[in-house]
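To: structure desk
From: M.T.
Subject: fold request, one chain
Message: Could you run this one when you get a chance? Sequence is below, nothing fancy, just the single chain.
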Amino acid sequence: MIVESNSGVTLAGGAPFTGAELARARRFAPYLVAADGGADRLLRLNAEPEAVIGDFDSISPEARQKLQGRLFPIDEQITTDFDKALRSIAAPFILGLGFAGARADHGLAVLNSLVRHPDKRCFILSGSDVSFLAPRSLRLQLPVGSRLSLFPMGAVSGQSEGLKWPIDGLHFAPDAMIGTSNQVSTPDVSLTFDAAKMLVIVSVRYLPAVLRCFGLLNAVREV
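Reply: Done. Structure tokens follow.
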């Protein structure tokens, strides 16, 4: 492991994010790490990462100079910088910021890594959403009427309680049935799956509730 932290880690990528979004993430995950060019994004927001991980094909010379001693190159081109960083961090959880919205291919690669590393508890934040890989069993407390989308990254089936449109008996796959834009029908939502292949996407407003359901917060806090 390159990074070992007892607290949550905010992992910054090179896609755009605001200072407010960074501050929100660091309230829950104060330890700051950058994936390659994410270091430049952080420096522009007057934040310095404890470590920078990647193949270093996008970090600027100025950031390299400023962050000497905190650079950890992984010299291979088979995996993305996000994947390199994800597998190099040992922490209770990771909040990924700056990995959604800039390029479709980068965003898809990030989701691929979530499924390839199911042992890593990682939540991808955008300006509107939080996306994460569901474990085989999950219980969430969310407001009635709120959006809860399910997107399969492989063949997967499951059962649900507390959704407007139950998923029982459905067979999901990326090229078949998907479950976007479902709605919460009761405050307690229960989901079970036969494989760790399903992404859950909810409003970023409910990040505290998501972290709490994994036992990562002692109490719900406002974002």
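Reply (cont.): Residues 137-213 form a domain with the Jelly Rolls fold (CATH 2.60.120.320). Let me know if you need anything else for the meeting.
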